[in-house]
Amino acid sequence: xxxxxxxxxxxxxxxxxxxxxxxxxxxxxxxxxxxxxxxxxxxxxxxxxxxxxxxxxxxxxxxxxxxxxxxxxxxxxxxxxxxxxxxxxxxxxxxxxxxxxxxxxxxxxxxxxxxxxxxxxxxxxxxxxxxxxxxxxxxxxxxxxxxxxxxxxxxxxxxxxxxxxxxxxxxxxxxxxxxxxxxxxxxxxxxxxxxxxxxxxxxxxxxxxxxxxxxxxxxxxxxxxxxxxxxxxxxxxxxxxxxxxxxxxxxxxxxxxxxxxxxxxxxxxxxxxxxxxxxxxxxxx
Length: 285
Description:
CATH class of one domain: Mainly Alpha
Strand content: under 5%
Number of strands: 2
Radius of gyration: 84 Å
Keywords: Membrane, Transmembrane, Transmembrane helix
Order of helices and strands: HHHHHHHHEEHHH
């Protein structure tokens, strides 16, 4: 529905609610009558503009059953409209409306009750549909697993002191041994063990006299000479005879032994100058 199709009472109520187009319809509808009423004024357009500015100021206090035509003529100072009615051209209406636009109150326009009710009903319907949906989603959402938290006491780190290194013991004083004049004795390489040879008795005149005077010593020496025999390929040989043989002499195995010559040489030799081997041969002779 257009504003031009509404009645003056509806447009007045809309203008009081803050709708400027409704007041513009009242200006377009009753402007020619107001201009005809002030035709005798020096400036009828300015007088018409002043009437609508005054009506705009009185608009909030006007009752709903106010007759708009009579209200505007009363502001113009007349109760009747002389004939003929002079219409307003488009330029004149625009000039009057431009002045009304600057004088229009800058207050907040009140909301319509119908729109407020519609918004309230829509909010209730949306809330009624959202509550069951939220309940279903809450039931389908699995519960989160509980997380176990373990508390551990905070232990201050112990300061480990560096161990004190023990002082090194003093080294003992020593001296290198001096080189001796005698060369070191070398160890003999291992070899086959041979029985030790009987040591030659020391030529002692006293011991020879003792052996001559003591018959028991002669028997003992005889036993010793028997033990000094050495086994050879030709037969037993006395140890003294082997030692007294010079290394360059070669004795034939088949040569006969000169027993008488040996006996005479042994007998003729003095007793003190006889060697152990000679003494043994003399005693046996």
